[in-house]
Design brief:
single chain, five-stranded mixed β-sheet
């Protein structure tokens, strides 16, 4: 026991004692100074950032996180009176490249480009060596899917200072998805709008088209561009590094929805009109043609066809002469189609009676030293026979009874020489000379359609006034829910009398037997006028047929103009009248206008009695 205690004591005595050093003041001072200096530096830097240069850092932060986003508004749709789409907007994409990003990613310079291009002496084509840029097949694949040459793509991405260049626009979604799979640096896409026209060339001349930025450049697209376009919204947002929006800053531009247009056009009638017009132009080897269908009681345009036309979905067909809306832009001397207006003028100013008989023998007469003649001697004929046989002598004698101002005023009342008010860009007002003094020969020639010019639409409006009982309704390309009351420009009874007289044109012995329609009475007038050229009139003609139907209670006014028909059959009765018959019949049937039946409908004579 004693041994154990002795051993413990020895071990305890052998352990070293703890030594406590004295406090070192210089270390404390060093650490304190170091901490103080660091604190002062941090506070100084913080003060510099917060007080002296806060805007710079804010700008740098905004550059990395602040973005402007767009809320795309697609262009409004255009439809016909029954809701059938004539122009629609569908989503499309634009593929663009950031050349600087491409250069940074593939580390090339101008020397490498020149060194990579070698000419194949056999094919004469430019080939490229295997540089880093061409190591993969992705870039050739991009060029192929965008249908551009690889050399063109190379030239585009060689521009190191550019940050945004379009590669192709109006691209569909499958191509965009394919390009995304290529995962090429610097290639991006953005959403835009593509304009599609379901009816193609049938309505191209009136609908018009837009450019790649969805701005209307022709036709209704241009006339109503502001209404159809709407307004794309813009707002400032803050995004994180993954591109997610974390804060809406402010609205820069309010989004405004685009408007939709419903036209007065009936696509069913329009399709028939275009088909028949195109057929007539080709059969007669004419240069062009136009056709207008008007509702005489509302002023609505049910059809406006032109040929030649083009497919607006295929921009390679874009040619100015095909794009022109000839029904409103092209003027012509209307020829004998104005004779009913001269008869109406004579009745309005009481220079003739309805039953008056005029002697046209011997079939010609001298006026002011010049000769006016008919095809043959018609002898003594009444006003209806003047229109049926298209007598130049008869209508000239009526015109010479009128003062020049009276005939001019009548033509103006029927819309000649004036804007129709339809609101389409490029419309011509025609030519109606206004002079105080006219020679007898000038007055006579004006009575059978020479010396004045008109458009197809103007002539259709004039006949619509006759068909409506002397009322003028404002013309419109938009569907009318509540028709206007119209303005009475000539007495109702006189307008209906003239319509009744025009019925003989399509009957036996008339100039337009081919204008007849099974089951309906029609009233119309042919016009075959020579085309003016330098020094007088040439050998080319314009064939026109204008008319209304049904004659018992007119619903539609139609004018057909065929320009420069070739061959022996160039008269309007052979060229334009058949087109009128086909289109008018379709318009009446599609609009559910009942055939003439004196047992169930008012006849023209009943209306004349009511008017009187």
């Amino acid at each position: 026991m004693k041994r154990i205690q002795t051993r413990k004591k020895r071990v305890k005595q052998a352990q070293p004692r703890k030594v406590y050093h004295a406090f070192s003041s210089w270390r404390y001072v060093f650490v304190s100074l170091t901490v103080a200096v660091i604190a002062v530096l941090l506070i100084t830097r913080l003060a510099f950032i917060q007080v002296i240069e806060p805007e710079y850092l804010t700008q740098e932060a905004d550059k990395r996180s602040l973005r402007v986003t767009k809320s795309v508004t697609h262009r409004g749709n255009i439809s016909d009176r029954n809701g059938e789409e004539l122009a629609i907007s569908v989503p499309a994409y634009a593929i663009w490249v950031d050349p600087k990003a491409v250069k940074d990613a593939y580390a090339f310079n101008d020397e490498e480009w020149h060194a990579s291009a070698v000419e194949n002496t056999r094919s004469g084509k430019i080939q490229y060596k295997k540089t880093k840029f061409f190591e993969s097949k992705k870039w050739p694949a991009l060029a192929e899917v965008l249908d551009i040459k690889l050399e063109t793509l190379v030239e585009i991405v060689k521009k190191p200072d550019a940050r945004f260049i379009y590669l192709k626009r109006q691209v569909n979604l499958p191509i965009v998805d394919y390009i995304k799979q290529l995962k090429l640096v610097g290639i991006s896409n953005q959403l835009e709008s593509h304009r599609y026209y379901p009816t193609g060339e049938i309505n191209a001349n009136i609908i018009g088209l837009t450019d790649l930025d969805a701005q209307g450049i022709e036709g209704i697209e241009k006339s109503y561009n502001t209404y159809l376009q709407g307004q794309t919204g813009k707002k400032s947002v803050r995004k994180d590094r993954l591109g997610n929006v974390i804060d809406d800053i402010e609205v820069l531009k309010e989004k405004k929805a685009a408007g939709n247009l419903q036209l007065s056009i009936d696509q069913r009638i329009q399709a028939v009109a275009y088909s028949e017009l195109k057929r007539a132009v080709k059969i007669n080897k004419a240069t062009s043609g136009s056709l207008v269908v008007l509702d005489v009681h509302t002023g609505e345009i049910y059809a406006m066809a032109n040929y030649p036309s083009f497919n607006p979905n295929d921009r390679s067909q874009y040619q100015p002469y095909k794009l022109r809306n000839r029904a409103i832009t092209d003027t012509f001397e209307p020829g004998s189609t104005v004779k009913p207006l001269v008869v109406a003028s004579a009745l309005v100013y009481k220079k003739a009676d309805v039953d008056e008989v005029i002697n046209t023998s011997p079939g010609w007469m001298h006026i002011g030293g010049r000769r006016v003649r008919d095809g043959h001697n018609l002898g003594k004929i009444n006003l209806a026979m003047i229109l049926k046989k298209s007598s130049n002598i008869g209508v000239s004698k009526l015109a010479l009874r009128l003062k020049p101002g009276e005939l001019q005023q009548t033509f103006a009342n029927f819309g000649l020489g004036n804007d129709t008010g339809v609101g389409l860009i490029g419309e011509s007002i025609g030519r109606l000379p206004i002079r105080h003094r006219w020679s007898d020969f000038e007055l006579a020639t004006m009575s059978f359609g020479y010396g004045i010019t008109a458009t197809t639409l103007q002539l259709a409006k004039a006949y619509a006034i006759l068909g409506s009982g002397g009322k003028e309704y404002p013309l419109t390309m938009l569907k009318v829910e509540t028709p206007s009351k119209g303005e009475q420009v000539i007495p109702r009874n006189i307008a209906l009398e003239v319509v009744h007289m025009m019925e003989g044109v399509s009957e036996q012995g008339g100039t337009a037997r081919k204008a007849k329609i099974e089951g309906y009475r029609i009233a119309g007038k042919t016009g075959t006028s020579r085309k003016a050229e330098a020094g007088g009139y040439g050998d080319d003609y314009v064939s026109i047929f204008a008319g209304v139907a049904p004659a018992s209670n007119p619903r539609f006014s139609i004018v057909v103009m065929i320009n420069e028909p070739q061959g022996d059959h160039y008269y309007a009765g052979d060229v334009a009248a058949p087109v009128f018959s086909s289109v008018m019949q379709s318009a009446l049937l599609l609009s559910h206008v009942r055939p003439d039946d004196e047992n169930t409908r008012y006849t023209l004579l009943d209306q004349l009695n009511d008017a009187n």
